[in-house]
Amino acid sequence: xxxxxxxxxxxxxxxxxxxxxxxxxxxxxxxxxxxxxxxxxxxxxxxxxxxxxxxxxxxxxxxxxxxxxxxxxxxxxxxxxxxxxxxxxxxxxxxxxxxxxxxxxxxxxxxxxxxxxxxxxxxxxxxxxxxxxxxxxxxxxxxxxxxxxxxxxxxxxxxxxxxxxxxxxxxxxxxxxxxxxxxxxxxxxxxxxxxxxxxxxxxxxxxxxxxxxxxxxxxxxxxxxxxxxxxxxxxxxxxxxxxxxxxxxxxxxxxxxxxxxxxxxxxxxxxxxxxxxxxxxxxxxxxxxxxxxxxxxxxxxxxxxxxxxxxxxxxxxxxxxxxxxxxxxxxxxxxxxxxxxxxxxxxxxxxxxxxxxxxxxxxxxxxxxxxxxxxxxxxxxxxxxxxxxxxxxxxxxxxxxxxxxxxxxxxxxxxxxxxxxxxxxxxxxxxxxxxxxxxxxxxxxxxxxxxxxxxxxxxxxxxxxxxxxxxxxxxxxxxxxxxxxxxxxxxxxxxxxxxxxxxxxxxxxxxxxxxxxxxxxxxxxxxxxxxxxxxxxxxxxxxxxxxxxxxxxxxxxxxxxxxxxxxxxxxxxxxxxxxxxxxxxxxxxxxxxxxxxxxxxxxxxxxxxxxxxxxxxxxxxxxxxxxxxxxxxxxxxxxxxxxxxxxxxxxxxxxxxxxxxxxxxxxxxxxxxxxxxxxxxxxxxxxxxxxxxxxxxxxxxxxxxxxxxxxxxxxxxxxxxxxxxxxxxxxxxxxxxxxxxxxxxxxxxxxxxxxxxxxxxxxxxxxxxxxxxxxxxxxxxxxxxxxxxxx
Length: 791
What we know:
By secondary structure, the protein is α/β, with parallel strands linked by helices.
C-alpha cells in the first residue's frame, strides 16, 4: 500500500523533537505487517497496522470522553470537546511527550488511519443530511429571511473588505496576500446543522426563539453555501471562467445522478414502511451501501468525497420512521468511535506552539470581525423585526457558533491549498476560543422560561364556576388516552360549564435536528412523521362529538427532545389561557398494580412542566386495567371520586377540581379531611384559616347534594395518615390529592423518608405505591402559586 502524506503534515511532524520521518515522498506499509500473533510470540503489536489502529481509536475516544467530562460543567457541548480533544492528543499537548508520537502515531500508520477516519466522516456527513429537515424552507418568513440574509451579508462585507485593505500591512511570508480573502469567506460561513445542534444542547430548540434561530440560520446557510461553493469552484478552476462553468456542470450532473439513481431506493424503503412492513436489517444495509457509492461517485466527478453522502442524506426524510432508525443505528459508533479518530487525525496536524504571533493575530482579527459581523447582522435585524432586546442579543450570539462542519471546511481549504497550514492552525484556535466564550453567554442571556414566571392567577380557584374551563391534556402514547378521556368525562362538561381541551401529543425527537410543532386540523391527513398521532387525535375527536357541543377539542402535535418538551406545554398554556395542564405519570403499571416500565423522557418533561408551567398542573396516574373507549362511554353507571385534604394551596386546588365533578349525577364525591389530633403551632394558623374558608364554602355548596359527602379523620402521626389511606383501597375509581405539603407537618412524620417519586409529593407517592389503592386512578394536583412547602 502507498500512502501519500500531505507535505504540510510532514513539516508539522518534522518540527517535533525526536520524531522519525523517512527521507522519501511516500511511506510503504507491507500487507504482511497488518497483524501478528502477539507479545507471547515475541511480536510487538504496535509494529503492525491493525493493533496500532485499535490503540489509536481507544486513545482518541478516551481523550475526547475525558475532555467532555471536564468541559461539561461549563455548559459546553460534546462537539466542542471532540475538537478540543483532538488538539490535546496531537503535538500541541499530549504528543509532545518524548517517544509517544513515534510509538502511537508513526507516519506509517497514517494510511489506515486516514481511510478509517474518512469513512467515519462520510457517515457523519450522511447523518447531518438525514437530520436536516428540508421542510424548514416552507416556514421561512420575511422576518426570518431578513435576519438570515443580513447575518450572512454583514460579516462577508466586513471580513472581505477588511482583508483587502489589511493585506498591505502584512508581511507576505506570514500571511499570504491571496490567502486573507479565502480566510474571510470561510470565517463568514454559517452552518444550519451546527446552529440546530447547539440549540438542542442548550435546550431552547423548540421555543419561539429557537424556531426563529433555526429558520434564520437556514437562510444564512443557503446563502453561505452559494458563496463558498462558488469560491471553491472558482479557485479550483484556476480563476478560468470556462473551467468554472464546467465545474458547476459537474456538480449539477452529480446531484442529478444521486437523485435519480439513489432516489428510487428511498422510495422503495418508504413504501415498505407505509404498508406496515418493518425495516429489516437488509434494507438498512442497502442504504449504507448507497452512502459508500455516493462517496465513490463524488470522487469520480472530481468533487469532495463528503458531498455525495451529505446530498444523499438530505434526500431522506428526517425523523421517524426511517430517519430515526438510521440515526439509532449509526449515532453511537460514528460520534464516539470514528469521529474521535477523525478529530485526532486533524489534531495531529495542529501544533499551536509553532504558530507565529503575527499570523495568529491577523487570522484572529479576521475571525473576530466575522463573529462581530454575524452578531451585529443578526441582532440589529432582529431588533428591526420587533424582537425583544434580550432575544436579539441571544440570537446574535447563537449565530456565531462554529463546530465540526466549519472545521471540515477549514481542512478542505487547506487540502486544496487555498489557505496555508499556519493559517489553518490559527483558524482552529479561533474556532475553539469563539465558541467556548459564546456558549456561556447564550446560556446566561437566553432563558425562554423567564416569560412564564411573571404570569399569575392561572388556577382553578381563580376561574369562575360557570365559565368555560380551559384544559391542556398532554399525551405521550396511546396508553394515556383512556384514562385522560375518563377524567375529562368526570369533569362534568355541560351547557353551564363547557370545557375546552387543548390536546398535545408529545413525541420524542429522534433522527432529526429540527423539532416540529403542528396545530393539527381534524380534517388534515397524517404524514409519516405524525401517523402515530392519528389514533390519539381521533379518540379525542370522538369524545367531542359525543358531548353535543359542550366539549371543544384543539389538537396539537409536538416532536421535540425530552429536555425541551416543557417549552411547548408552557407556550400553549400561556397563549390559550389554560387553567390546568394534565400530564401522564412517566411510570407504567401492570394490571396487578406492580411497576411495569418507565420512560426517562417523560420524567424529564414532567419535572420541567411542574417547575415552569404558568398554570396549575395535575399528574395523572393510571394504575387500573386498560379500558376501551367504548367501555368508558357506555358503562358509566357510577364514578366514585375521593379528595384527600390535609391542607395547603395544592389541596385547596384539588378540592376545587373535585367540587366541579360533584355536579354530575353519576359522580359520587367524598371529601376526606385528615386532621391532627393535637394543637398546631401558631405559624400554621393562617393556612388553617384559608383551609377552613374553602371547606366551609364546599360544605355549603354540597348541602342537599346526595352525591357528595364530607368526612373527617383524626390521626396522631404519619402512620395514622397511612392507615387512613389504606382503608380507601378499591373503594374509588379516582383519588385526587395535592402534591405539596409542609414537610414538618406531624401528619407526614415518618413518611417523607420513603418518598421515592418526588414529583408526586409524599401523599401522591404513597398512593401510587403497589401497597395502596389497588387499581384506583390517582390525580396529583399542584396549584400555580409561589407557595413553597419544602418539596
